[in-house]
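Checklist before submission:
- one chain only
- standard amino acids only
- sequence pasted in full

Submission:
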Amino acid sequence: MGFEWGWADLNWIAVIVAFAANMALGFVSYSPKGLLPMWKEDMGMTDETIKSANMVKTFGGMVVLLIIATISLALIIGNIGGGLEEGLVVGAVIGFGIAAGNAVPHYLFGQQPIRLAVINELNTAIGITLSGLIIGAFNA
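Returned file contents:
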């Protein structure tokens, strides 16, 4: 028994649903009625600076990287033969333990507001956990 990348067994519908759920979480979290006002304040951004960004580059990069992350998570969960519970646990460990745990020190060293770290990394951790749960549910 060894670690094998199960490309042939990858459930692409699970990847698409997990990706869409993670995107939806981000859109709700960073909406004007959600965390966007606090995020903009902590980032020192205004509506004008946001509108001046290259949105094709910003959203395109986000989509590509989130697809890569979701496929990677599906490969890990699939390799362990994970169902719903395993997907949830793997997602939570990677989301909270690895992704957020490794990112928060960058905010600390950058002397950025801790609230910004909480906003961004909770979104990341919850998104990865949600994706793991969805992928695991499809594998069950």
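Reviewer check: DSSP finds six helices and no strands in the chain.
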